[in-house]
Amino acid sequence: MTEHLPFVRLRAIEPEDLDILYGIENDTRLWNVSVTSVPYSRYTLYDYIANSKNDIYADRQVRMMIENKCGEVVGIVDLINFDPKHLRAEVGIVIEQKFRNKGFAQATINQIKDYSLNILHLHQLYAYVNKDNKQSLNLFERCGFISTTELQDWLFDGKNYHNALLFQLFL
User: Fold this and answer.
1) Is-above-0.85 flag for pTM?
2) Which residues form the N-acetyltransferase domain (predicted)?
């Protein structure tokens, strides 16, 4: 039986997304699962939006807004650490709190897989996931990623180190 997932549309970041981006980037609850450790100013984020070429080859990353069928932004998905020689990129996703546990993350990962394979012609996507983050572990497993390595003390939350699992998907 096929699971019904909600409609999602991926689009480029627009200046109108500044408040959403500002909220996500400065949410300290997310910092322990990312490389962010300082707040971003509105000016810095506006400058990022204005100067990003939105070209993975130029920027070595691409960030897209995730919209639902009503045009509401439900989150952000990133392809970062793009390696054009080895044709791989790291995937990261944040779904706004009020839209979590409704299938938007899985629908988005499915779309980013299709985009990575058919548009970017990538060979591999990967993600680092905190071993204690059951929701993210389940998400990547449902989307076909395989846990290939456990990295000891990989993530630091400001007080404690946490092991991370490296998830890989070969396209």
Assistant:
1) yes
2) 8-171
